Amino acid sequence: MENRTLRVFKTTTYREKPNSDELAFGRTFTDHMFVMDYSESEGWHDAKIVPYEPLKVDPAAMVFHYGQSVFEGLKAYLSPKGEPLLFRPRKNIARLNQSNERLCIPPIDEGFLLHALKQLIHIEKDWIPSSEGTSLYVRPVIISTEPFLGVAPSKQYKLVVILSPVGAYYKEGINPIKIAVENEYVRAVRGGTGEAKTGGNYAASLKAQEIAAKDGYSQVLWLDGIEKKYIEEVGSMNVFFKIGDEVVTPQLNGSILNGVTRSSVIEMLEHWGVMVNERKLTIEELYYEYQNGNVQEAFGSGTAAVISPIGQLDWNEHQMVFNGGKTGTLAKKLYDTLTGIQYGQIDDPFNWVEKV
Ligand code: COI
């Protein structure tokens, strides 16, 4: 029996807000958080907004041992009128349930979670930063909390939503980043959990990321886990290449994350009459097209990354420099239009933005 009441317990000690011009990504958290528990007998219950504080979780909780957890990432923006806006929150909440399904976590009521998110953001409205390129990152996470060491789906869970005022995800800001194609490690395999937003995918990516960072790369570009031929994603973003007069992005195949920004980019491009091709793309083909002067631009898309131009992509000894290492026209137009819509500064023909 699920209980859909949302109780609010306000803090008495307010934290100092960071300077909105100096925001990094994901280091500062607001005064309150949303929590809700799941048990077999009560379903999802005890929904409440409480002061931000560490969780008390049993060391035998299954999440610590077998990683049964999922998360989401979306953002709240401040409109020119000072109203908080959310960008396509229903898509993120629906994807949370898709990840839940893959990880054997009981589904949440999507309408109720949206209501809770809006309440939390409303309470934390003054935490939404106003400097250009900043926003309030919304991070829902579900962990399995049953104290049990057997490998099975947990019978207890906790959903937490925390908020973090953020600036750019990459230190380069919106300037082009340098990426290396990963040849040794793989992020996900077909039939695995690549399409789900689960911590294990990110844990699996750390080793390659660490090695690449030592060589001066911001991220690695993952190839498919079977043939190590097909371009998949970057881990923190989906990727797009302007090849000739079409934009190519790897087609969803179960091991690539179905990004909300990815689908927004596709819809915007199609709206502008740009040809988009979601298909398999090998790294060899990309290099071949590059050598023939046909790859004009490369960029990534993601909630945290927004639109991030890729200035350089290194594949073994081959170096691909796109658009002279500068932000391309298309990436710039996508960035400006997407953020214009997100911040409520321009018309939203797609009805993507929702008031809180
Ligand atoms: C996001 O873009 O919101 C993500 O969850 C990616 C994460 C690596 C920050």
From TrEMBL:
GO terms for biological process: isoleucine biosynthetic process; L-leucine biosynthetic process; L-valine biosynthetic process. Its EC number is 2.6.1.42. It catalyses: L-isoleucine + 2-oxoglutarate = (S)-3-methyl-2-oxopentanoate + L-glutamate; L-valine + 2-oxoglutarate = 3-methyl-2-oxobutanoate + L-glutamate; L-leucine + 2-oxoglutarate = 4-methyl-2-oxopentanoate + L-glutamate. This is Branched-chain-amino-acid aminotransferase. Pfam families: Aminotran_4 (PF01063). Belongs to the class-IV pyridoxal-phosphate-dependent aminotransferase family. It comes from Piscibacillus halophilus. Keywords: Amino-acid biosynthesis, Aminotransferase, Branched-chain amino acid biosynthesis, Pyridoxal phosphate, Transferase. GO terms for molecular function: L-isoleucine-2-oxoglutarate transaminase activity; L-leucine-2-oxoglutarate transaminase activity; L-valine-2-oxoglutarate transaminase activity. Pathway: Amino-acid biosynthesis; L-isoleucine biosynthesis; L-isoleucine from 2-oxobutanoate: step 4/4; Amino-acid biosynthesis; L-valine biosynthesis; L-valine from pyruvate: step 4/4; Amino-acid biosynthesis; L-leucine biosynthesis; L-leucine from 3-methyl-2-oxobutanoate: step 4/4. The keyword Amino-acid biosynthesis applies. InterPro entries: Aminotrans_IV, Aminotrans_IV_CS, Aminotransferase-like, B_amino_transII, BCAT-like_C, BCAT-like_N, BCAT_family. Its cofactor is pyridoxal 5'-phosphate. SUPFAM superfamilies: D-aminoacid aminotransferase-like PLP-dependent enzymes. The modification N6-(pyridoxal phosphate)lysine is found at residue 197. It is an enzyme of class 2 (transferase).
